[in-house]
TrEMBL record:
Pfam family of the protein (one): DUF2165
UniProt keyword list: Membrane, Transmembrane, Transmembrane helix
Residues that span the membrane, as ranges: 21-41, 82-105, 125-146, 158-175
Protein name in UniProt: DUF2165 domain-containing protein
Taxonomic lineage: Bacteria, Bacillati, Actinomycetota, Actinomycetes, Kitasatosporales
Amino acid sequence: MAGNTQETRAPRDGLQRLGTVSAAAAALTATVALSMVLVAFGNITDFGTNQQFVQHVLAMDTTFKDPDLMWRAVTSPALQNAAYLAIIVWEVLTAAVLVLATWLWVAGLRGGSHGRARRASSTGLVMVLLLFGAGFFGIGGEWFAMWQSADWNGLDSALRYVVLAAVALIVVHLPDGSRAAD
């Protein structure tokens, strides 16, 4: 009987722990966290590049310039910069939540509970979905017709973040199955 108990526990030890749902959730959360840290870092350290992106999208100056849509354009530099700063603040907060979630997952892999990690990951991943889904797809893509621009179209990039965050969110909420193995 003692031999069976050790065999049952063996898959949860060492490198085999990497094959658990919890480890996958931790890895996906860490991947999205790293991406968001780098996105925020890039926008802070190379402020002007994406500032131009936001300005062009909001000004709608590279769209088809349909008169029925152009009333939506925001041409005030102050409002454009405020929008860009709000995006950066959201990215920094999202990155911080996801870094915390990653830490909680790693701590939980050592034998703790995953409840706090799951909640923190969910919060951060939903923040990513709001930024790139609602912000880029909805507001940028549809309201400001970003899809019409050959030069200032961030929809493909946003799609990558939405898919990654959505997959991570699904994995984070999968049952871990460790109790069934015991």
